[in-house]
Every structure is written in structure tokens, then in C-alpha cells.
Amino acid sequence: MNFIPINENQREEMLKTIGKGVEDLLSGIPEKLRLKKSLNLPPAVSEMEIKKEMSEMAKLNKDLIVFAGGGVYDHYIPSAIRHLTGRAEFYTSYTPYQPEVSQGTLQAAFEYQSLICELTGMEVSNASIYDGATALAEAIFMALSINGTRNKVVVSDGINPYYLEVVKTYLGKTYPLEVLPLQEGITDSEKISKINEETACIAIQHPNFLGNLEEVEKFVEIAHKYGVIVILSFDPISLGLLKTPGEYNVDIATAEGQCLGIPMSFGGPHLGIFTSMKKYIRKMPGRIAGKTVDRQGRDGYVMVLQTREQHIRRENATSNICTNQQLCALMAAIYLTLHGWEGIKDIANKTTQKTHYLAENLENTGLRLPYEKQNFFREFVVEIPEGAKKAIDKSIKKGYLAGIDIGKFKKEWKNHLLVSVTEKRTKEEMDELVEILSPRS
Amino acid sequence: MEIPKDLFYTEDHEWARKEDDEIIEGITDYAQSELQDIVYIELPEVGMEVVQGDPIATIEAVKTVTDLYAAVSGKITEVNKELDSKPEFINKDPYDAGWIVRIKISDMAELDTLLDASEYRKSIQEE
Predict the structure, then answer these.
(1) What is the DSSP letter of A417?
(2) Model pTM score
(3) Residue pair A355/A386 in contact by the 8 Å Cβ criterion
(4) Is it the case that residue B4 has pLDDT exceeding 60?
(5) Alpha-carbon distance B65 to nearest alpha carbon in chain A (angstroms)
(6) Does domain B8-111 have CATH number 3.90.950.20?
(7) Domains and CATH numbers, chain A
(8) Cβ contacts of B59 on chain A, cutoff 8 Å
């Protein structure tokens, strides 16, 4: 199959018209960056052959019972989501460049935003961005733009280490980053004095990477005293049980939305949830859909406040993101609509109860929970003296993925296994995992 | 096109009215007619020190956004808070109710670098 739409004659004609050769058009690429050999690819094969090869590779995948989380969770995905999002009108369309022609796409974005606002208690949501990590990094940029005269960024060390990597990439060397260390598995509130008049923003994750609940109120109170923007990275499912970002009175709240009906898919594509308060809407990144009426009084959907976006504001825009994760946002919108508040509460409750059941039973085998003093939501840390990696390898042999070895992120997390539970896990599965991880087995 | 004789102008279409050691600054009639319906203005903080040519405010119209540049160096002493709820003042009355900021001038000589009404008229005719 040839993916290049023009043929050789058309190419010749185009080059003749502009009076240039292909080499002339590529002259802007420095010599040292040019690949001077052919791409290292095997010879072309037929569709039948490639399909056979791919299915053989797919068979190598192991279908494991997942207790790993760390930002991506194995919740049950109702079948309706796949059926509805599979409709060609949704499935094949990209973020529209002539948006108002695609009323259905815009309405889907608008419904998604409305549902996210209801879920979070925040006043505005954009139509989504890439993922939880970029949402957090973009939120920090937005806060730096709101607090234009300040440049110090304070973040909790309880934020997902991969998110912190993205934040560091965004900030580069331009903005000083201060990290609030953890104490007993939560952000050390004794170090709160690092927040002062020079601080543009503080970012916390709640529940944090270790699953522990943070003392969000303390940070909001001190931050607002100094005019510091508070950014909360939250877990959408946790809002069925915990206070919402709106109730905490934070300024910007972001999340990874994968847990709302989106497949784990080896880590992406996922969904960046981005919300804020109305007074900051002009500094918000991403697209926002709005509802209005046309000349005849009929409902209509439009892209609003586009003057925030880079194609108009140019270098003064807060962000260069001018697109969204529309299909994944639609999955989340359908998920939230199918479950409603009661459904989300139920999932959050079951998730918490099962997490605590597993934690207790692991502790009963003699394993230590290093942060047992803390309240935790959907995941927790268990110390595996023989090494977390070893335990994971052992579990895979039995058809389980026991968790994440977080020792790779920090020395003090050596032998720490981060275990996560969703409503999908059964008592039998949890008992089996306890059996696998038990020091006696 | 209204270009009052008693004002200073910049090539970026700001006007400045000198009052003792301060200037009042806004955008010209020409600028507002080019931008069309102004829907929002982001004002700077009072007390901010600015250098001539610094972007100090953002003016947002329906389909475009532009910056307001400081006509002179100095300190911002007042901003037109009325524009928060009535940005259309800039369209309706750019030289009076639509004023944007007041700056305490730090270097009087900078006024000489600004255009007078006839120079400004000439500059927009060239555009």
C-alpha cells in the first residue's frame, strides 16, 4: 500500500513549476543530521503475512491479573463505551479545524466538560489535554502566567515521579523548582515555610503516589495567605469518596482520566483532565467548547475564548496545546454518564474496601506496611524483604502482576512494592496474591 | 479617524497625555477600529516598574489579541478598573473613558522619542 498520494508525474510537474529539485527543498536540514543510508527495515510483506506475524507476537502477551497502578488502573470498562465510541462519526474524526461544522464533536466536548465540572466541583474544564503528566505541567505554566512577577515553583515529592519528570522538562532551567520532601509517606507540612511571597504555585498530588491521603487543607491555607496558586493532581475515582478539588478551594485541578473507562493500552493514549476557576479562564491552556443559540434560536456549540490559544495569541499564549484528546474524553463522558454519582461512589467504596482487605491480609502474613499510619485510598506500599522485583517476577509466573517496584525511583523506597486494587479484583484473586507474596510461601 | 493634536503617540498605536510628571496612556481611535469589538483587557498591577516598550497590558478582541506597550519608562500609578466590566469603553471613547494606565515618568527625555499627531497620522497612512 502506498501512502503517498501523488504519483511520479505529478511530483515532476510540481518541482518544475517551482523550479527546484527535491534536494533544494531539504537544504535547510544540516548535513550532520541527514541519514545517509536507507532505513533499517525488513523487506515488504503482504497483509496476510504481516497479520500472521503480528498475531504470533500478540500471543506472547500474558494476560495477567493486575495489581499494578501508579497512575493507570484496571477498572472495569462497560461494553457500551466501546460500542458508542466505535461509531465512525466519533472514531475517525480528529479535533476539528473548522470546529463549528462538527456540531456532534463539539457537543461531546461540551458534555465532557460539564460532567468533569460536576465531578470536581471546579468552575471550568477544558476539552481535555494529553495526559495526567502534561496536565500537571501545563497547570504549573498557567500558574506562572497568573502570578507573572513570581517564578518559584514548589512541588510535593509525593507526586508521581513520571509526572515530576515531565514538569522538570517543561520548566527547564528557567524556573527554580523546590521539592517538599515526604515524611512518613506524606508531604512534610513542617517544610511549609518554603511557601512564601516569591512562590508562584504549589502542586500536590492527593491521594499521593504512594496512595496516601495528603493534608490538602494545610497547604491551601498557607498558600492562599501568600497569594500562591494551588494545583491539585487528583484521582477522578477517589472523588466518589473524598472531598472534591472544588471543596478544597484549589485554583487548578488536574488528573489522569484513564480510570474513567479508558483502556490501559500500555500507557496511552490517555486523558489529561484540566480544570480551574472562572477567574483564571483566560490563562487556561487547551480548547474549550461552549453552548449558544443560532439566529433561529436553536442550540449550537462553538469553540470559545480562542484568543487564549497559540494560533491567535502567538508567543504570549500560556500553552502551545491547540488540540485535545477527544475520543478518550468521550469515553470518560460516557463512563460518567453510565455510572452517575451513585455509581462512582460505589466504585470508590468497593475500591477502598478491597484495598484495605488486601493490605490487612498482607500485614497478617508478617509483611510490613511502611506507611500504615496513613490513610490510603486505592493503593499502598508493602515492604518485600527479598526484593520487590523478585516478588513481581514470582507473581507473573502465577498469572499475576503484583505491583510496581518503586525502589527504582528512590533509595528510601528500596524493597517497596506499590500495590493497587480496583473494584474488579475478587476476593479469590486477592487471597491468591497474599499467598504469592506471603513470606511463608 | 480622530487624532487629537495635544497627545503623544507611538508607532504601536498608543496615545499618551502628559499631566505633570505622569502620562495617561491608551490606544488610538485607529487601533480600536482595527481591533473591532474589544471584549477583555488584562490590566497590570499598580506599582509595577516598567521600561519604555514593555508589554504592560493585553487587549483582547473577538478574533485577535494585542499588547499595550509602555509609552515611557516609569511606575504604574493607576489602572482603569472600569474596563474590567466595560472594555467597550475603548471602542466607544478611546481617548477619554477608554484610558488604560497612568505611568509616573522616570525620564522626561523619553517623551521626545514619541510621535506628535501629524507624525502619527503619517505613520498610519503608510500602513
Answers:
(1) E
(2) 0.88
(3) no
(4) yes
(5) 6
(6) no
(7) 65-75+341-437 (3.90.1150.10), 79-335 (3.40.640.10)
(8) none
